[in-house]
Amino acid sequence: MRLDRTGQAEAFDAIGDRYDEAFPHKEGQVASADWLIGSLPPGSRVLDLGCGTGVPTSRQLAEAGLQVVGVDLSGRMVALAREYVPTGVFHQADIADLRPGGPRDLGRFDAVTAFFSLLMLGRAEIPLALRTVHHLLLPGGLFALSMVEADVDDFSIPFIGKTIRVSGYLREELREVVDAAGFEIVEESSYSYAPATADVPPEVQIFLRCRRPPDAR
Which of 27, 66, 99, 216 has the fewest CB atoms inside 10 Å of its own CB, making it the most exposed? Predict the structure, then answer.
């Protein structure tokens, strides 16, 4: 299944570097990447889903000695990530392309990050995307996920001068969806965040640190 992406990549192509300017404080994201760095041996392969400009996550992971592969729907974001994180490998692709039997096979990973990237999918697609992450991870692999807490599905919002469509869950439902995809939730945290732009409202960000069990379902 792939729902309509019309306008999503184009919006982020136009936003470019302004994304990092509008969201300068990423403590939760940095802390979750630190968790991965502290949990993985050097040289581990990590997939950054929705890598954006590569800052801060792909750069943080690469500077810690991990092998970083990034994927983003926006060609402009991929170009910036290649510039900012020259040791990483970045692809313009859709998460749906990475599904089992899909057209893009990037191999398997010791860890996957998805910081706010699943927001860009409709709710009907998010469980499938989580199963794709499960497929991409080696047994025992780690998964760092963040979402904005919101009871919305494919909802249009103004975003840094553009319009994008987002989905979200309330906290308990998010846990249920992640658990149903076969992940063990190791730790949870949340942050209240007010972006540095007038058209994006304050939000509660939920960060989940997860593991694909060794005897994966």
Answer: 27
